Amino acid sequence: DIQMTQSPSSLSASVGDRVTITCRASQSISSYLNWYQQKPGKAPKLLIYAASSLRSGVPSRFSGSGSGPDFTLTISSLQPDDFATYYCQQSYSTPLTFGGGTKVEIK
Amino acid sequence: EVQLLESGGGLVQPGGSLRLSCAASGFTFSTSAMSWVRQAPGKGLEWVAAISSSGGTTYSADSVKGRFTISRDNSKSTLYLQMNSLRAEDTAVYYCAKDFWSGYYGTYWGQGTLVTVSS
């Protein structure tokens, strides 16, 4: 099974800050890496697919990069609506696995 | 508009069974692979099972293999998860997700249904 390790597990940031979340796979997964945002009590929402493709309708302040085992989600200027938990997920092979999540909180 | 509506959750005793449903609308269900993903209270996301668009291929997590069965009825645009031999650790919100499949990503998710396994 491919293990996905996210860091940090939580962070505190202010509106306007640049935020970076990293995700490392236990083996190469090419670009089969997706990012989701989840708010309390709500279903996850797809933000980025195939490592760096922005889903239609997602603000351009979100971006993804990386390949192989190391990936990054960047929020260029954190907005009030962005306080949530973010998950990476590999779709390279089954079992499909998620990272442990990164909770972005208000400083 | 794509909509996924889960139902069938509830309280069940350990060792019991439950069948979840996910009614789909707003897209051609028979052309989309589907998955179930769960989230235990206060925990992260865990993929449970996936099924191809035709229903001919299924995958499941080791944690549910032999106990849970994913299926679909394309004529009813409905996805199912039959859960048997339920354990306390199966307590979670269960989401259905469109296109959540190897090589792809979960484009749309339902609102979830809570399954609680407790005596």
Question: What would a concise description of this structure say?
Answer:
Helices cover 0% and strands 50% of the residues of chain A.
Low-confidence parts of chain B lasting 5 or more residues at pLDDT below 50? none
Q: Please identify the oligomeric state.
A: heterodimer
What structural class should be given to the helix and strand makeup of chain B?
Answer: mainly beta
- Report the helical percentage of chain A: under 10%
Cα-to-Cα separation, first versus last residue of chain A: 36 Å
Biggest interface and its residues per chain? A-B, 25 and 23 residues
Distance between the termini of chain B: 40 Å
What's the order of the H and E elements of chain A? EEEEEEEEEEE
Structural class of chain A: mainly beta
User: Overall mean pLDDT score of chain B?
Assistant: 97
Residues in β-strands, percent of chain A: over 45%
**Count of individual beta strands of chain B:** 11
The main sheet of chain B comes to: 7 strands, mixed
Strand content of chain B: over 45%
Shape of chain A: globular
Low-confidence spans of chain A: none
Sheet of most strands of chain A:
7 strands, mixed
Q: What would you report as the Rg of chain A, rounded to the nearest angstrom?
A: 13 Å
Polypeptide structure, described:
The complex is a heterodimer of chains A (107) and B (119). In chain A, 0% of the residues lie in helices and 50% in strands. Chain A is globular. Chain A has 107 residues and is mainly beta. In chain A, β5 and β6 form a beta hairpin. Chain A contains no helices and 11 strands. In chain A, strands 2, 4, 5, 6, 9, 10 and 11 form a 7-stranded mixed sheet that branches. In chain A, strands 1-3-8-7 form a 4-stranded antiparallel sheet, with no helix packed on it. Chain B is an all-beta fold and 119 residues long. Chain B contains no helices and 11 strands. In chain B, strands 2, 4, 5, 6, 9, 10 and 11 form a 7-stranded mixed sheet that branches. In chain B, β5 and β6 form a beta hairpin. Chain B starts with a strand and ends with a strand. The mean pLDDT of chain B is 97. The chains are: A mainly beta (107), B mainly beta (119). At the A-B interface, β4, β5 and β10 of A face β5 of B.
